[in-house]
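User: For a reading group we're discussing how well predicted structures match intuition. Take Protein HflK. Before you show the prediction, I'll give you the sequence so everyone sees exactly what went in.
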Amino acid sequence: MAWNEPGGNNNDPWKNKGGRDQGPPDLDDVFKNLFGKFAKSGGGRGPGGGKSMGGIGLGLIAGLLVAIWVISGFYTIREAERGVVLRFGEFNQFVEPGLRWKPTFVDEVIPVDVQTVRDMPSAGSMLTEDENVVTVEMVVQYRVVEPYKYTFSVTNPEKSLSQALDSAIRYVVGHSTMDNVLTSGREVVRQQVREELEAILEPYDIGISIVDMNLKDARPPEAVKSAFDDAIAAQEDEERYIREAEAYAREIEPRARGQVNRMLEEAQAYKERVTLEAQGEVARFAELLPQYQAAPEVTRQRIYLETMENVYSNTSKILVDNKGSGNMMYLPLDKILERQQSNTPSAAQRNTLEGLRNVDPNPQNTPSNNTGIRSDRFRSGRD
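Assistant: Thanks. Here is the predicted 3D structure of Protein HflK, as structure tokens, for the group to look at:
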């Protein structure tokens, strides 16, 4: 039931207490009574009787805060890191790996990894010097060498490196032809991108070192990929044929030089042999000349017989005049000899051989108009 009900009932709790009408209590009195009760419950005494509980509490709180502040100052720097210490926001020193302590709220430590090799990829479609579109993917590997510069030279070192890498790739690809980017010039493009990236980062001095640059992929747009694949295959075949031709040239050239040397030596040997044979013939005829001058007919006949002996010894076919009948007989002696070796000679073959034995060996007795071998030719040749 409300204290101020209608009808004149006044049940105000701040009035009529102790038989007198009073207002609400004073706030100062309320707080004094509260602190007094707190002091009594803690066994404290008044101002003239010793320390109050409020002083002890403040001391404990202060000690606890100091302990928390000291404990919060311990930190650890890992083996691969170096710590950049800032005192009130200003660079103070570097700290090595290990367990360290710093005054909290005074020093700030920023750990920086200086041993791990980091990767930064970049990819995009670019226009080459010959106005072709090519998609290039590259990855740069880098390492932090100066922690302070890496932290404070630029606002965001990784973003700066990414933008510099994109700029370097587009510059190099824009000054290269598509064939160089896709095939034979990939290594040149990779090296040029690295040099251009280092030149871009040098003014920024962000404290990193480029370890390596990898060209992961370079390909034409998908719409013309098949045509470029055929072109690349043709270029690879061309290079393979060139290498095979060079290998064949290296193989055949020593062999050809050997053949040339052998032919030169054979020609020199032939020259010496012919010269010696000619000199021998000259010496033989020089010895024969006095004999011919002493007996011309006998010497001529002997020379003729020796010549015919050499001629008939090197041929297997003979033409024989059939005793002035006007018919020329052909004797394939090679075939006859083969048959003699395989079978017994027949009667016709025996008659032929008998006819050969009866041939006049003196060509002077043979008529000059029907002979197969005319003596007057040899005679005229000798004369």
